[in-house]
Please model this.
Amino acid sequence: MYRAAAWKIVLFLVCLGPLAWLAANALLGELGANPIEAANRLLGDWALRFLLITLAISPLARLTRWSSLTDFRRMLGLFAFFYACLHIANYIAIDHFFDWKAVWLDLTKRSFITVGMAGFIFLLPLAATSTGAMMRRLGHRRWKRLHGLVYPAAILVVIHFFMMVRGIPFEPLAYAFVLAILLGLRIRLARR
Model:
């Protein structure tokens, strides 16, 4: 029990690493010519990475028979949501200075933002029901069905990334490939 708690503390601190890196580079003026865009990109990238890491936990635990890995899934999923919230907050507060009309215009006119926001909306009920108390209140079957929203959320976030990238989308293709493998593994393991 003590070791699991210690590992959770270590993981928590590691998960804050990208935010610490961003803060340090922002303070040092090392975010390049467009620091707002660089910050938004980094926060979005880490939201996607944590989402994919979260999706990898169950298949990895089953394939390796290392069931204690699942003890970290909730924290990783909440970090995916945390970085997604920071990504959106940076976009609304720093990029648009709370100009809600401009945000609404972007949301309705720029399809990659619409798709990204749809992915975020799928994540909202997952974060809201991530506690043990909510799992008991909903019942395991309904809770598990609700948390199946993570799959369309991940797909939408990868599509959001694809739509946003100009030129050859090597990085979004890599994330799409990882997501396809994870979804394929989950389907295969569910049939066993």
Q: What stands out?
A: The mean pLDDT is 92. The longest helix spans residues 35-64.
